[in-house]
């Protein structure tokens, strides 16, 4: 059974209450304290009263402000450490995340990775930390909001004498016409937009109570932000993918589950014209070319039906677009951003067949480095056969030509040259700055005669349904801050004791504002102004007088 | 309801809700890096071989499949290719299929490789790497042993050491 505390005024208070919810009488009076602690209206914080079951124990733990602050500090320390080395999404694209941290930063880097700081926001322990912080915010808020709301709802007009006397602002007026003065006081308070209640000739004026809910509104905002963050991990809620696409190529847009395809026609990189009159001076100061535009001209397609993996999809054109920085291509809640580029990557190499004896050319071939043909006919009995091709050439351990990867970083070729005078062909090995004749002296040779390059566009594909939730949470957070900061909860009690009128006043902040209201009130009604006993105490202390 | 009991229920519900939210988020985090693993259904695909014929994985239902991902520039792949070829020669082709998926290379590169290493078993080309991505292939070679019901029985990452090793694995999935 709960141990209700029944006050002299007849109101039933929950166990642990410090000041009676109705009349404010101190139930656990500390006579040595001249001014009452009005925090949470002297109500009973639930966590302080029930401690039996394990659930209550967990609850009480998270109700503690100390625990909440500790969690906030832990989160701050974690995110601070997370900025020491780069996050894994920001390490170079060609680096292996398994070895990158150790190679770059030594033992600290290894720990950094092992502890999950390299992908902090996806670390299980960081998520737990945020979850516990969320629990702490919810529990601590409920634990304080419920009793505070109850106490403010139950407050009565007539307050206990001791409650009145122990307020920071308190004053007594000896009155000749108390009724009249109270009437004038009520009018003055209403002019100051107080809600005035009357009971047995006593007055209670209150305004700005809703400012007390500020912290809880603020916490609701925080919880919504946390929910938004959590939803990012749910399938379909949040996409953030990278797509590199060569000019002329078509690929499935990552994150769209093969629903959308993109063709990159052209990447354009423009700089300001150094001879432009308008920019001439500025460009001189900048000392070099300044980028004016990064743009990819693309076509977006939608795949029809649900093709099986690997199957060539039937594509239906959606639209053409020029994707520029900060001007993404938008489709189906997705945004495709121009985010990166590489200029002039090798695409095709041209070679001329030359008769070494008289330097006579016999035609030219073009080899696509990504999809080479085997045979090239030059006419008049000349033809070239590509025997082997090494896109990323090196000599392996056995001393044979080999390729490190399928990227044409260092292309090498073995050609067989057929000519009317060499119908069985001659072999020519060509790599960058190398032209070898591995099977004896040749009469013909292949000579590099041209390069065709192409650009690569780097796109970022984004779809984020959580951002609006986070945004709403942030707005609610700010509303809560404003509510608690810019409004004050002011209360004034006037109690009639025979011909005396007692006056007490209380605010949760901005005592100066309250005193201004009181000044107006006393001016209008002729009541004497209450004394700020905290100020008086400090005044006395500073002068070495007795308090 | 008694207020104290009601309070206990509310507290329990809130704490459990938060615990569930944390648990689910962490589950999603670990699920995101999921790879295709033992016990999973092998994702179906259609790819073309060097001769332009379409090959569909689900057409092999009822047979066991050894699915090998490789590239011509990958040395460990080159090492195991002769073992696979030798196993293929003596394979009971009515019961077991060997299929190799080349990752994103040109027809020229694959054909040249097949000629050089005298490969007869079917090789399909994953030009856009869609299948490679769907199977979450990391280091290559990677080999999947798929049973007659299309479930992955085993995943081997890295070069398979011998003919005997391959035969052993195949005998385990043979229907």
Automatic annotation (TrEMBL), chain A:
Membrane topology, from the record: Multi-pass membrane protein
Chain ranges passing through the membrane: 58-85, 124-146, 216-234, 465-487
ResB-like domain residues: 65-422, 441-518
Signal sequence region: none
Keywords assigned by UniProt, alphabetized: Cytochrome c-type biogenesis, Membrane, Transmembrane, Transmembrane helix
A Pfam family that the UniProt record links to this protein: ResB
Protein localization: Membrane
Name assigned to this protein: Cytochrome c biogenesis protein
